[in-house]
Structure formats: structure tokens, C-alpha cells
Amino acid sequence: MKKFLFLLAIVVFFSVSCSNTSSKPVEITDSDPLVEDTDQNPTDDDTETPDDDSDTVPDEDTEEEQQVPPTHKCRVVSDDMPVEYNTEGNLKFESGFIALESVDYSLQSNDSKTGEAMIWYNFQPADENPQEKPLFVFYNGGPGSASAIVFLYNTAKRTADQACSKEGYAENETSWTQFGNLLYVDARQTGFSYGITENPTNKRERSSYFTAANFNVFTDAADFIRVILRFLGNHPELESNPVVLAGESYGGTRSTAILNILTNVAEYAENKRAFYDGTLFDEIAAHFQKIDPSVTGMPSKEVVAKQFGRQILIQPLVAGGEQFYAEGELLERDDSPLYTVQQETGVEFKPCGEDSFGCQKHNNALNYIQNADRDIYSYRRPYNWLFDYTDAGAAKMLQMPMFAEFIINDPKKINELYAENRTNAFRYGGSRGYFKNFTADPAFKNLPELEKIIIKSRIGQRNAKPLSTGNLESVFGDLPSYDEYFVDLNYEINSTFYSAAITPYDTVNGEMFLENIRTVKTFITQAEEDIIIYAKGIPESLQYFNGVSGVTLEENSFTVNFTDGQSVLVTFPFYPESSHSVPVNQPVKFFNDVKNWMKQ
Questions:
Q1: CATH number, domain at 231?
Q2: What is the mean pLDDT of the chain?
Q3: Cis geometry, peptide bond prior to residue 401 (ω within 30 degrees of 0)
Q4: Tens digit of each residue's pLDDT (9 = 90 or more) over 255-266
Q5: Calpha distance 478→472 (Å, rounded)
Q6: How confident is the model at residue 6 (pLDDT cuts 50, 70, 90)?
Q7: pLDDT band at 384 (very low <50, low <70, confident <90, very high)
Q8: Above pLDDT 70, what percent of the chain?
Q9: 558 Cβ contact list (under 8 Å, min separation 6)
Q10: Least buried of 150, 297, 345, 578, by fewest C-beta within 10 Å?
């Protein structure tokens, strides 16, 4: 029986430009990318091999060849060149937790309350003059996914990409620290973040945490706003700097809600929107009053946009169910990549057509790709390629002292990691892991069909190939069965999001996205190989919303025309060899595209 895959938002998040031990960042250009040939160049060879900019996909000859990205651009440098990073002052490499208290709020006039949580972050300062550079905030999606893929694969100072170093890490020559400060955040109960409850040994008490009170579009966004504002408050050198949200997959929905709350906080505070969290709104107001003395009361849309004025979305879900509908329509057209797969594999694609009652076109496409033994996140690749590839990076990070090498600070100094200091911590309602029978779990019965496909597949994949738990317990202590140091995907979270009053599929998400782009400059990736987020469906889906008169698609951009006469240009670069995780497959082009976009 075939396994299925799980949707990342994630992960979100592999051809790379990197070096093993370079002391200075190297500016990369598309005209002279750096290439590592792992078969011909030993790891201690500092020879640079020029290549052209055409990242061609290799022939599918052997399983081993399919385990690496279509191209890998790495700089190999000798081990006698030490790397020196800033470890002094307030703007230094650091990791830790930000505490989130229990909060009363309402969603669609229904009162509720969140639980406590400890949210993990990793901060990496810009290479030069960090106090003058923007702050990029990274996260993956799911919902329920850790931010490990975007952290470990080709955006941070070091990369876990096995195309550069099979067993260890390499210095990343496309590190975004060359033009900004980087903040990586794990959502509650994912990655290294964990929940807090009075008596975690009580299974009923733990299970009661996994409800829509804690896991919905708006409380998730509120968590991230609090973390960002508190991080800025703890680093006054950055407190007024521009903040750029960088989310993958469901991270696009998260970015949408974050920006909508921030830019319209005055209306939210007057209870004119679906979500109300008075303490959050007061915290937002206090932040902007502090950095701009002219602000009194709640900040205006224009004031907020001066700081939160850009977003980078990697293969995002931004238009809810309308987006998946549009993707399904496009995937049945004559130019659909599904017919390419049919020709290559000999497995027939049977479209739903116009009269197929009950046949959902996007789901039909995903099922077909899996039946053809291809990856729904990268249709040119073999079944399950993305997760098989990126699991290797997570496994590296969970080894001491490799953990310290990736976060570039000493995790032994982080008190909240030690078992003795997390007696109220928990990760699961039941016992740890993915080892559940999907069909026996009533929590999944009311999920949208697409979510059933991908959650069932992810559970199957994890049962077949459990992620290494590493050896962190040897340093921080043994944890009870309901806790764990790292969780790459917490599917209990994913299922809970779809029982909320407002789900990731709801029309309001697309409406908020369209409202946001009027004031927030937006960059969206268009990865050719991704079927789960078939990016061509994004501009197509926006035409379904009220207030939009049309969408014009241009090369590497699209323009949304509103009925009130305003037109908004969205940057929409094409990545011809990328999977769902663009930084994995084409980090050089992605790096340069973002760097140039930031200058506009």
C-alpha cells in the first residue's frame, strides 16, 4: 500500500551555495554560481568550479542520484580557515525561549482562552552593521510544522544540506545575513517549542490543550506577533527596524493573519473584526508608541506598514479553498505537468472533467502523482523525495555538539531545555510520536479531504521511517513519553486547526491577503515542481474575490486590479527546478531575487 505525504507549509524549505569554513560571506551572482561536484571534488579541496545558470534536472537513472537536488552550488574551503562570528554585545547569535502567558480572547464573538507556551527562537545577526539592517522572520507551515527546513537548508549562516556536507554542516554562501538579521521561530508545540500545563502527567489535561482555543488562524498569528514584539523589545538596537515576514506553505496564511491584525489593529481594537484580543492590541500599541512618539492610541495602517511593510511567501496558501479550487482547474488543462508525468511513467492520468460529481480536481491530481510514484511536493522527483531528503538535516541538528554548530551558540546555557526545568512541559495529548492508526483516530474524521490525504500519508511515512530523536537527552536529561525535545510535525495540531470557527480554507484568508497587499510589498515564489501548492493557481484564485476586477499575469510578477481603481504589483519569480521548498533547490536564484527585491 502506498504511503502518502504530508503538506508542509511547510516546509516548508535545495541546491545550495555554501562553504565548509569560510570566514567571510561571498556575494553570489547568477552569472557565476558556485558548484560542488561531490563525486569529483574531495571535501578538503578549495577549487571553485564555474557553471552556467541552467540548473538542469538529472536523468532518473539511480536511486542514489535522486537523493540530491537537481543542482548543488557549494564552495568547498579547506578546514584550516576558521570561521569567526560575533558573540559579543546584544546583537549576537542567540537561541532561547519566549514565554507566552494564558490569554483571554474571542473569535466570532465566542469567548475562549489560550494555554501557556514556551516558544523557541534562533537569532542570527547580519554580517555587517546589524543595527541598521532589517529583521527577517522565518517560519514553516503545516499548520503544525517546525521551522527546521527553512532554518537548516540554505538561508542561515550554516546549512545542513547533505549536498554540501553529507555528515555535518557547511558555511552557507547564500546566507541571508548578508543583507539582514534573521529570526527563526517554531510555532507552539512544534520544533523546540512546547506547551505548559499545571499537571502534564494527566492525559486528559494534556489532551484538552489540543483544541481550537489554542490552534486556529488568529491565535497562531497572535502568538507570532507577541514573539516578534517581545524579541524586538529585548533588542532595542533593532526595535524600530523594518521587519520582513518570510513564511512557507501554511506560513502564507500565518503571515496574512499577522499583517492583517497589525495593519488594522485600530479596527480590531474596536471589535470590528472577527478576532478580539485586548491585551495583544495594547502590546501592539505600546510598541509603536515607543518607537514613534507621534503615535497616540492605536497605530494607523500607514504607521504599521513603515515597519511591517514587506512579506516573502514561499509556496504559500493565501487564498484558502479558492486557491485549491483554482489549482485543480489548472492541473486539468492540456499544459498540466500531470500529462508530462503520464508520458514519463506510463501511468494514465484520468481528469475529473466537467461532469464528474464529487471528484475534487486538486485532490485527484495529488492522488494521481502518488499513484505514479512521484512526489507531490516535487513532481519530477520520486515518491517521498522531499521528506526523505530533509529528514537528514533534522537528524544532524539533534546530535550534540552539532546542535550548537547550527544555532551558533551554546545550547547548554539555555535553562529551558533541561528536563529538570520543564516539569510542566508537554508536546502530545497522548504518548510521543506519529505512531497512531490514522483510521482509528476520531479527530481526523471531519477534516477536509485534502488534509486527510496528507496527514494519513505523513503518519504512514513516519511509521515507516521514524525521525531520529538524536542524543539531546544525554545532555539535557530524559523526558517523559508525552514530551520530546524536537517535533518536526505535530499532526495533532494540524487536525485541530480545521475544527476552529475560522479555518485555513475559509474565504476570509483570501480577503485579508488582498487587503494586506494594498500596503505591504509582496514577494511570492512560483516553483514549477510543486503540486500541493501549484503556484499558478494563486493569481488565478484572486479573481474569485469580491472587489477584484481582474488579475494580469506578467513575467515574474502579477498585477491585481481592484474595482476601486487601485492596482497592486506582486513579485512572482519563476523557479523552474524547485520543489515546495525553494531554498532547498534554487537558493542562489532565490537569494539574488530577494536581495534585488529588497532594493526596490
A1: 3.40.50.1820
A2: 85
A3: yes
A4: 999 999 999 999
A5: 9
A6: very low
A7: confident
A8: 82
A9: 539, 551, 552, 569, 570, 572
A10: 297
DSSP at 41: S
Q: What is the DSSP string of 464-530?
A: HSPPP-TTTHHHH----TT--S-BSB-HHHHHHHTTSSS-TTSHHHHHHHHHHTTTSEEEE-EETT-
Which DSSP string corresponds to 204-259?
HHHHTTSSTTTSSHHHHHHHHHHHHHHHHHH-TTTTTS-EEEEEETTHHHHHHHHH
For the chain, how many structural domains are there in total? 1
Burial label, 475 (beta-carbon count in 10 A; 0-12, 13-18, 19+): middle
Cell numbers for 510 = 483570501
Per this entry, what is the length of the chain?
600
Using CA atoms, how far residue 494 sits from 144, 147, 198, 389, 481, in Å, is 5, 15, 24, 22, 20
User: Is this structure's pTM higher than 0.85?
Assistant: yes
Structure confidence by residue, pLDDT tens digits, 478-512: 999 999 999 998 878 888 898 899 999 999 999 99
Which residues does 375 contact at the CB level (< 8 Å), separation at least 6?
5, 369, 381, 382, 383, 384, 385, 386, 579
- Mapped onto helix, strand or coil, the DSSP state of residue 123 is strand
Q: Show the domain range for 513.
A: 1-600
Looking at residue 24, the DSSP 8-state letter turns out to be: S
